[in-house]
Amino acid sequence: NAGVTQTPKFQVLKTGQSMTLQCAQDMNHNSMYWYRQDPGMGLRLIYYSASEGTTDKGEVPNGYNVSRLNKREFSLRLESAAPSQTSVYFCASTWEGQGPIGELFFGEGSRLTVL
Amino acid sequence: AQRVTQPEKLLSVFKGAPVELKCNYSYSGSPELFWYVQYSRQRLQLLLRHISRESIKGFTADLNKGETSFHLKKPFAQEEDSAMYYCALSGKSNYQLIWGAGTKLIIKP
User: Fold this and answer.
1) Do A42 and B99 touch (CB under 8 A)?
2) B14 touches chain A (CB under 8 A)
3) Which of A109, A89, A106, A108 is nearest to A27 (CA)?
4) Which residues on chain A are in Cβ contact (under 8 Å) with B46?
5) Alpha-carbon distance B75 to nearest alpha carbon in chain A (angstroms)
6) Model confidence over B76-104: pLDDT tens digits?
7) B58, B71 contact by CB (below 8 A)
8) How many CB atoms lie within 10 A of CB A86?
9) b/e for A13-43, b at 16 or more Cβ within 10 A?
10) pLDDT tier at A101, thresholds 50, 70, 90
11) Which of A12, A17, A92, B81 can pair with A33 through a Cys bridge, CB separation 3.0 to 4.6 Å?
């Protein structure tokens, strides 16, 4: 049982380049999330997918797009990377389909640097 | 507005001393509160949630609705407790957790 797996773990981009962060979970969870973690700011929600086929904006969606490919996979795309997107990105999932969420299960994180 | 506040960015205590990490929240209703922990080079994981009323790794947290607080406590700190701690809140009608900014706990030998 791998849990939540995200790739790549590290990436360096130049301003304007695009890339996709991949996330997969094998726990049959309904809901999946993308967060960014910045020093002194905690975790900020970028996008989430409450269930397969739906996606919604979180607190900081600008500059990002997402795809819920199937129940297992939820990808995050940076179309034109900017230095402000330098951060550590976390994917998370939980089985809650509606309403308040309980325990989130996290991936190991992806450290992205935009030069 | 829903908000979680962790007033200390950094907390440093000696091994064996008591630890209290503060968490205050603002929420109109009955929230569910969580503490998550991130050890060095490990993924973020749930430490405890208020509804379970468990003690995990010697840590406890009591929800005080009058003071709108959910402070995390441990009577005797261990070096392995050094980590980043996040307090989070889940409301009744959304799919999101509201996170505090986190407190870095350092246990000095």
Assistant:
1) yes
2) no
3) A106
4) 103-104
5) 25
6) 999 999 999 999 998 765 667 889 999 99
7) no
8) 16
9) beeeeebebbbbbeeebbbbbbbbbeeeebb
10) low
11) A92
Residue B107 has which token pair? 């246990």
Q: Degrees (nearest 5) of the Cα angle A59, A65, A68? A: 100
Residue A17 one-letter amino acid: Q
Q: Does B44 touch chain A (CB under 8 A)?
A: yes
| Mode of pairing for the β-strands spanning B10-14 and B103-108 | parallel
CB distance from B96 to chain A under 8 Å? yes
Which structure tokens are listed for A74? 């939820």
Phi and psi at residue A85, in whole multiples of 5°?
-95, 5
Q: How far apart are CA B77 and CA B58, in angstroms?
A: 9
User: What mean pLDDT comes out for the span B9-28?
Assistant: 95
Structure tokens at B32: 């569910």
Q: By the CB < 8 Å criterion, does B8 face chain A?
A: no
Interface contact B95-A48, CB threshold 8 A: yes
pLDDT band at B38 (very low <50, low <70, confident <90, very high): very high
Top-confidence residue, A83 or B30 = A83
Predicted pLDDT of residue B94: 63
Structure confidence at residue B6 as a pLDDT band (50, 70, 90): very high
Question: Distance from A78 to chain B by nearest Cα, in Å?
Answer: 22
- DSSP-based three-state secondary structure for A47: strand
